[in-house]
Amino acid sequence: MEIPCEVPVMTLPNVTLFPQALLPLYIFEPRYRKMLADTLLGERMFIVAMQRPNYTRETPMGVAGLGLVRVSVDNPDGTSHLILQGITRVEITKTTKYKPYRVCRVRPLQAPTKENVAIDALLAKVRDLVTERIQLGLPFPFPVTPKVKTKDKEAAAVLSVKEIVAYLDKLNDADQLADLVSCALLPGPVERQTILETVEVEPRLKYLIGFLMAEIKHHRKHRPNT
Length: 226
Prior knowledge:
Blueprint: E1 6-12, E2 22-27, H1 30-41, E3 45-50, E4 63-74, E5 80-97, E6 103-109, H2 117-135, H3 153-170, H4 174-185, H5 189-197, H6 201-222
Parallel strand pairs: 1-3
Antiparallel strand pairs: 1-6, 2-5, 3-4, 4-5, 5-6
Helix pairs in contact: 2-3, 2-4, 2-6, 4-6, 5-6
C-alpha cells in the first residue's frame, strides 16, 4: 500500500492508533466532518495523533498512527461513525496546512526485520506475563469463552487462559505481537504512546514487559487479603 506524503491529522487527547488495530470514531466537529469528506474522495487515510500533554494549543505528538477508513456511516445530522484501521507508524515531519484541518508531511516508520535469541526470550516473557495477568483477573478486552460447559469457574478460567495463550503462540511476528498486546492491555496513554514511538522491536518488547510487570506488581500489592 502506497503511503501519501501529506496526510490529514486528527489530534485527540489520550488516544493512540496502533498498526492493525481497529479504532471506532465519532466525527462531529465541522472541521473533521470536512476532513472525512475529503478523505473519502481520496486515499481514505488520515492520522490519529495524541495531543501533546501540558500544551494548551492543539499540538500532535511527533509519532502517530496512520489509518485507513474501513467503514463510514453518515448520520442524518451530518455526523459520522467510522472504523479506522491502523496501517503503520508515522513520524510527523512538518505541518503544511492548519485550516480547515491540519495536514502534515509524514515519514513511515517500519521496524527492521530482526530475529534473534533475545527477541525469542522476550516474546516468551510477554506470553508468561499475559497468562499471569489473566489468572489474576485483570481486565482483558478479548472475548474469552470456554468451548466446553463447566460448573467449575476455576477450570473455565484455566481453559480460557490456554485459548488466549494458544492464540498468541500462533503469532510468530514479534512486531505484530508487541503491538497487539500493547493495544489490548495497556490502559495508560503514556505507556501506549511510548510503545507507539518505539520502532525497534527489541526495546519495544522490553518496555512492554516493564509496563506489564509494574501493573501486576501494583495489583498484587493493593488487592485485598483473602
